[in-house]
Specification:
The complex is a heterodimer of chains A (310) and B (274). By secondary structure, chain A is α/β, with parallel strands linked by helices. Chain A folds into two domains: 220 residues, Rossmann fold; 64 residues, Alpha-Beta Plaits, CATH 3.30.70. In chain A, a hairpin with a 2-residue loop joins β9 and β10. In chain A, α4 packs across α5 and α8 crosses α11. Chain A is elongated. The relative contact order of chain A is 0.14. The mean pLDDT of chain A is 88. By secondary structure, chain B is mainly α. Chain B has one domain. Chain B contains 13 helices and two strands. In chain B, a hairpin with a 2-residue loop joins β1 and β2. Chain B is globular, with a radius of gyration of 19 Å. Classes of the chains: A alpha/beta (310), B mainly alpha (274). At the A-B interface, α2 and α3 of A face α1 and α6 of B. Bound molecules: adenosine-5'-diphosphate and magnesium ion. The site of magnesium ion has 5 residues of chain A, from α1.
């Protein structure tokens, strides 16, 4: 498959922050590519450089065969972007916002009304076309921005934290729309998020921390790379339990987060029955699960991503 | 081209929807009209026309009305450019800047939006004519329109350039306040500026309001029918290096001024990543 985005040796220095460090990656035509990392990791900075909005300090970016620094206009025509912050004109109606976008992107006059109708249908906002955006809820605004990003049939759609600040139900809805898009249009999508569950819909994920890409792989392979299962337990006396585990059970990889002891084991079925017999401290809670992206993040950075949230 | 139209339409449309701003920008010019046109007109007539012998038909209101219209253009043009900073604040500028619309068209669209709004407000000032005890014939009022629009363009490009550099509305308000009053007082809008000290005269001569007001007066006031003394009193002999300046030259100045500032704003948009 062809690469639609190619980024090599990308760097961004702000006055006193090295926000993006030697970043390299490719995005393939038609895939959903996810950037996962805590707040301040450098996701928005990277996306803004790819979208021509921010000049890189060094490195090169190609989109759809066009160079981002030398062929800005060609790049701009090829992409649609939903920025992290709202960029709608709230004093105008949904329809007016979309019509302006058609003009900026030279959508042929005779096709405009049909396209507007089409994208409004994708995000279920047809009935709100002539309402002012300031009367919309946060979720509706997001959906309208997604619709607007699609109006000119971009080759790549960028979504920078598309669900940040929305309630869980609305977040789920937004992802439904995004997946619907992927199925219907086969459009390439580049998204960033600091919600782990949301990164799961990506075909491939780049994990970013402190401006660096730590690893790139499919969610399944990332989780598989950790190997085995995760056992979480709480006990009457965690310190005592920890000591017993360290003395008696050599094959477990043990960490403690808040009041939960976590163990990574190759095969929980064989392990668990022996383990319970060996432990003297009474167990109050026990949970066996497959690794999540949070475990992946923890394994690579030594921190959980949630701890970064305020 | 469509980009320019889109950006322009948006600002004009929003102007008509924002009633508060529509009326708010009238208060200052009307206040000036009350003070200078009503209360102070006698004093001003004595001050300006005082040196003349015998009975004169010098009417200060007639002198000052085009000036007040120009002032309305100045205020509205510059304050309409505030929309650029608001667009940065509310994020819409990103939608514009990430689009393939060329940077020069963005600058032109924004400039024309502010100019049109100012132009419409300037025309609305004509509604006050019947209450001022002066009269103009319709043709001269129609003839002055293109010059008013051109002046609005020159002034909007000042606002455009300032706004293109700034991130906060507060900074903009401050700069504008420091700029607007001198531009009004050193233009001949409210009183003749024929005998200024030379450093002030330089400001007068690079101030686009000077040329706008001068053209407007030449068109709106029947200069030929005035005695040379009155003409002198009204400051209608604007000259550079001792030579009287023509309407054509004044138009050229305003066109050139607008072009240069729009191009500078374009450069600023090219650099910026709002
Ligand atoms: N305009 C800026 N000026 C200076 N530092 C910035 C600017 N924008 C972002 N940063 C810094 O760069 C780092 C990366 O920020 P950002 O790309 O927004 O992260 P993310 O989108 O992953 O949350 C942060 O440390 C942030 O403080
Ligand atoms: Mg971000």
């Amino acid at each position: 498959m062809n690469n639609i985005i190619e980024v090599s040796q990308l760097n961004k220095h702000y006055k006193d922050t090295h926000a993006v460090k030697d970043v390299n990656f490719e995005v393939k035509q038609g895939e959903i590519f996810g950037f996962l990392g805590p707040n301040g990791a450098g996701k928005s900075t990277t996306i803004n450089m790819i979208c021509t909005m921010l000049a890189p300090s060094s490195g090169s970016i190609d989109i759809n065969g066009f160079n981002v620094t030398k062929q800005k206009n060609k790049v701009r025509e090829s992409i649609g972007i939903i920025f992290q912050e709202n960029t709608l004109d709230e004093k105008l109606t949904a329809g007016e916002n979309l019509m302006l976008h058609c003009k900026f992107y030279k959508v042929p006059k005779e096709k405009r009304e049909a396209r507007i109708q089409e994208v409004l249908e994708i995000v279920d906002l047809v009935d709100n076309k002539s309402k002012k955006v300031e009367t919309f809820s946060g979720g509706m605004k997001r959906r309208l921005e997604i619709a607007r990003g699609l109006l000119h049939y971009p080759k790549v759609l960028f979504l920078d934290e598309p669900t940040v600040g929305l309630d869980p139900q609305t977040r789920a809805h937004i992802w439904e729309y995004i997946l619907r898009l992927k199925r219907k249009e086969g459009i390439t999508m580049f998204l960033t998020t600091h919600y782990l569950d949301e990164a799961e819909i990506s075909d491939r994920i780049a994990i970013m921390d402190h401006g660096e890409i730590i690893t790139i792989n499919s969610p399944a392979q990332l989780k598989q790379s950790l190997g085995g299962d995760i056992i979480e337990l709480s006990t009457k006396d965690n310190d005592q339990a920890l000591q017993e585990i360290n003395e008696n059970i050599s094959e477990a990889d043990v960490t403690i987060q808040d009041d939960t002891i976590q163990m990574k084991v190759a095969n929980s079925d064989d392990f668990i029955s022996d383990f319970i017999k060996q432990l003297d401290v009474p167990i109050t809670r026990l949970n066996i699960r497959k690794p999540t992206l949070n475990d992946v993040f923890l394994a690579f950075t030594g921190r959980t991503i949630q701890h970064e949230e305020n | 081209m469509e980009g320019i139209i889109g950006i322009w339409q948006r600002d004009v449309k929003k102007f008509f929807r924002d009633r508060a701003r529509l009326f708010g920008s009238f208060t200052m010019p009307i206040l000036f009209l009350l003070i200078f046109g009503g209360g102070m007109s006698g004093t001003m007539e004595n001050l300006i026309g005082g040196g003349m012998e015998g009975e004169t038909d010098f009417q200060y209101v007639q002198f000052v009305f085009p000036g007040i219209v120009a002032m309305t253009l100045l205020m509205t043009s510059v304050f309409s450019s505030l929309s650029i900073i608001e667009d940065k604040d509310f994020g819409y500028m990103k939608e514009i800047l990430v689009s393939p619309v060329s940077r020069v068209n963005i600058a032109i669209g924004k400039m024309l939006g502010a100019s049109t709004v100012a132009f419409l407000q300037g025309i609305m000032m004509f509604l006050l004519i019947p209450f001022l005890g002066i009269s103009y014939d319709i043709t001269s009022l129609l003839q002055v329109l293109p010059f008013m629009f051109l002046l609005a363009c020159a002034l909007s490009s000042v606002g455009l350039l300032i706004a293109s550099f700034l991130k906060s509305t507060q900074g903009f308000q401050l700069i504008v306040q420091l700029l607007v009053m001198p531009m009004v007082f050193l233009s001949g809008a409210l009183f003749p500026v024929s005998n200024m000290p030379s450093w002030m005269d330089i400001i007068v001569k690079i101030n686009p309001v000077t040329y706008g007001v001068d053209v407007m007066k030449k068109v709106m006031i029947d200069v030929e029918s005035l005695t040379p003394a009155v003409r002198e009193a009204m400051g209608l002999n604007l000259s550079i290096f001792g030579r009287s300046i023509t309407v054509f030259e004044e138009v050229l100045f305003m066109l050139g001024f607008t072009t240069i500032l729009v191009l500078l704003a374009t450069l600023s948009f090219r650099r910026s990543n709002a």
